[in-house]
Design a protein that fits this description.
Distance between the termini: 90 Å
Strand content: 15-25%
Number of strands: 11
Mean pLDDT: 76
Shape: elongated
Low-confidence stretches: 50-61, 220-270
Oligomer: single chain
Order of helices and strands: EEEEHEHEHHHEEEEHEHH
Number of helices: 8
Number of domains: 2
Length: 270
């Protein structure tokens, strides 16, 4: 294979002597304030370095940190980034996301998403958004998306307050595939309090944090029990064959606890 053509010529009115046709090269970017991940930044002895912290992008083990993410938030607030620019939130998804099926790739959020979450459309606090890496790392629940196939919805351990109502905070995560696979976070906002319960009944639950005193499964069983105590003309007379009382982590103890309530309810209706 011919690697170069030395016939010469002009391109955009600029003369050249040789044209490279094939080969492997290293990209060299000359910028005032380098901020590119996985890049080797080299200065000569005469370089005047402005606003550059060699440790800004990685910790001692070469990992992206929460401090790095917050430095990017600072740049958003200073107006240094465009709406379409993306900032990295975390370098690798945590175990809950991987167990739920998310690809092991960096997680990014656009400046537009930040603005939409905090001012343009929603009222998520700056403090909450600055804590997003920790919230993403340890979600309460992860659901498969009901509206966007292949996407995930994480219910995070925080909230958006609106008119005195604390709405559970969710983060939508959409895997993107290309030359470099990434996980994009297109939305962060508060959802109505019943959202997790609806998604469980839709069979969308992929992960549940089990270190809480009351898991979502227990809460739903309790809510069903309360409903059965309310006066109603609707009496359960048939159970579908595909009904699964163990759905989404509800254990046998939960089911045993609810049976007496259901029996009592049926007794009171007679």
């Amino acid at each position: 294979m011919k690697l170069a053509d030395d016939a010469g010529g002009t391109e955009n009115n600029i003369p050249y002597d040789i044209e490279f046709l094939d080969g492997v090269f290293t990209h060299l970017a000359i910028v005032n304030n380098p901020r590119y991940e996985r890049a080797n930044i080299v200065f000569n002895s005469k370089t005047v370095v402005q606003n550059f912290d060699p440790n800004q992008k990685q910790d001692k083990k070469g990992r992206w940190t929460k401090e790095n993410y917050n430095a990017e938030i600072d740049r958003i607030l200073k107006g240094e980034l465009k709406s379409a620019d993306r900032i990295k939130v975390v370098e690798h998804p945590s175990a809950p996301w991987l167990k739920a099926g998310l690809q092991d790739a960096e997680m990014f959020m656009s400046v537009k998403t930040y603005d939409k979450a905090t001012t343009d459309k929603h009222n998520v606090s700056e403090e909450t958004m600055r804590n997003l890496p920790d919230l993403i790392d340890d979600p309460l629940y992860i659901f498969k998306s009901s509206t966007v196939p292949g996407s995930y919805v994480g219910v995070l351990d925080d909230y958006e307050e609106e008119n005195g109502i604390k709405k559970p905070l969710i983060a939508v995560v959409k895997p993107e595939h290309g030359k470099i696979d990434v996980n994009l976070i297109p939305s962060v906002y508060g959802k109505d309090p019943d959202f997790p319960y609806r998604e469980v009944f839709k069979n969308n639950l992929l992960y549940e944090r089990l270190d809480k005193n009351k898991t979502i499964s227990n809460n739903i069983i309790a809510s069903i029990a309360m409903e059965t105590l309310k006066p109603s003309d609707n009496i359960i007379t048939d159970i579908q064959e595909d009904f699964n009382p163990m759905i989404m982590g509800a254990n046998i103890l939960n089911i045993i606890k609810i049976i007496p309530v259901v029996i009592l309810n049926l007794f009171l209706k007679k």
